[in-house]
Amino acid sequence: MRDVVIIGAGPAGLTTAARLAANGHDVVVLEEHQEVGQPVHCTGVLGMDAFDELDLPRQAILAITGEASFRYGHGEPVCVSTERIQAAIVDRGPFDAALAVRARDRGAEIRTGARVDTMAVDADGVTVHVRHDAAPVRARACVLACGANYRFNRQLGLGVPRAFVQTAQVEMPFPQLPRIDIRLGRELAPGGFAWGVPFARRGESYVRLGLFCDTHASRRFRAFTEQMAREADVDATSIPQPRLKMLPLGPVKRTVAERVVAVGDAAGLVKPTTGGGIYYSILSGALVADALDGALTRDQLTERDLRACEEGWRARLGPDIRAGLAFRALASRIGDRGIQALIEVARVDGIMPLLKETADFNWHRRAALALLRHPSVRKAVLSSIWS
Questions:
Q1: Residue 162, Cβ neighbours under 10 Å: how many?
Q2: Under a CB-based contact definition with an 8 Å cutoff, are residues 196 and 263 in contact?
Q3: CA dihedral (65, 70, 76, 80) positive or negative
Q4: How far is CA 232 from CA 63, 178, 196, 241, in A?
Q5: For 59-80, b where at least 16 C-beta lie within 10 A, e where not — what string?
Q6: CB within 8 A of 45, min separation 6: which ones?
Q7: Which residues have C-beta within 8 Å of that of residue 307, sequence separation ≥ 6?
Q8: pLDDT of 317-349, one tens digit each?
Q9: How crowded is residue 94: how many other Cβ atoms within 10 Å of its Cβ?
């Protein structure tokens, strides 16, 4: 019997595997795809301070930037630039592959092409059946790191995220953008925003074009990329079909069950403000691994014993998640006039120094609260909601 079976070889699962294996536990990771890190469905933007905090591989960094522009629709941008806040644009395939190498080096086994069909929990362990494998995997505990796939959550009564948004993204060669380009608007991306994230690959200029929104992501993505193509004098027909994905917003009801823990997207742990999930995935994997290490050592793996795994991420991530959900609920009520007013406030009313002082790429609570306390922001928001 193995100590731990981890379903999913994304950043959350691989981080959990590496930390548990380094502590001497017998860990196997089951990844349904043939290659770790593929297919890619992530914008791959991560605050630089996370690399030191979590000892992340730097060889997959494509670009580092401290600049972004915000605009209503396709109007004039407002630019934010800061040396204090730096973001890395990572190549997710090599990034995940480097995390896999680290997990293997520390003793974890990683099996690719291993799709889990069924899972059963009993008093002595967890039995996982892998498609096309005659022998099931048997382990003392299981970590769900299978992304936004909630069939095992439903089976175990963990619940599903309270809300979802739709996402669409492509990566392609593209004329160089001067900075990360964020575009807002109810018609463009209701409940979210669109983006262009520039970087270079093998000396050639590339971009990740994408959006997340409440409805009709594919249609809205086409309209957005057609406009971006016109601005860059690019043939719109050269833009490939986007990869579509549902993104969870908000944690599931419970992230632990008898002998089972969920991490990352499987636990619904993404930033409610932007939908970003890499940092929360890696951090939750590290926190869960540290708590699960003790439970394995004591051989105490009941749901009650594993609550420490949930308490860890709630203490660290809970305040930011709650603030992000509240901020998102308020922002979703702001109409286009309100969005335009906020852009103008940012352009003329001294918000940029406030953002430069409070913004943090991985933690959004401080900046969100500071903005909501700003008189001009409150006026624009309340006027939009009342109208």
A1: 13
A2: no
A3: negative
A4: 21, 12, 12, 18
A5: ebbbbebbebbbbbbeeebbeb
A6: 87, 88, 89, 90, 180, 197, 276, 278, 361
A7: 256
A8: 999 999 888 888 877 777 888 788 777 777 765
A9: 16
Contact 34, 75 (CB under 8 A): no
Supply the range of the domain harboring residue 371: 326-386
- Same domain for 176 and 243? yes
Q: Which residue among 232, 247, 262 closes a domain?
A: 247
Residue 87 lies in a domain: no
Question: Which pLDDT tens digit goes with each residue over 344-370?
Answer: 777 765 666 666 666 666 777 777 777
* 66-70, 148-152, 252-256, 285-289, range with the lowest pLDDT: 66-70
Q: Distance (Å, rounded) from C-alpha 246 to C-alpha 214?
A: 10
> Distance (Å, rounded) from C-alpha 288 to C-alpha 265?
14
Domain boundary, last residue among 265, 289, 317: 317
Does some domain include residue 70?
Answer: no
All residues at 6 or more sequence positions from 341 whose CB lies less than 8 Å from its CB, including other chains: 380, 383, 384
The token pair that represents 59 in the structure block: 């060889």
Quote the pTM value: 0.91
Do 280 and 262 form a contact (C-beta atoms < 8 A)?
no
SS3 308: helix
Query: What is the largest distance, in Å, between two alpha-carbon atoms of the chain?
Result: 66
Distance separating alpha carbons of residues 238 and 221, to the nearest angstrom: 14
In this structure, what token pair is assigned to residue 336?
């286009």
Residue 251: both structure tokens together: 């944690």
Cis peptide bond N-terminal to 39, omega within 30: yes
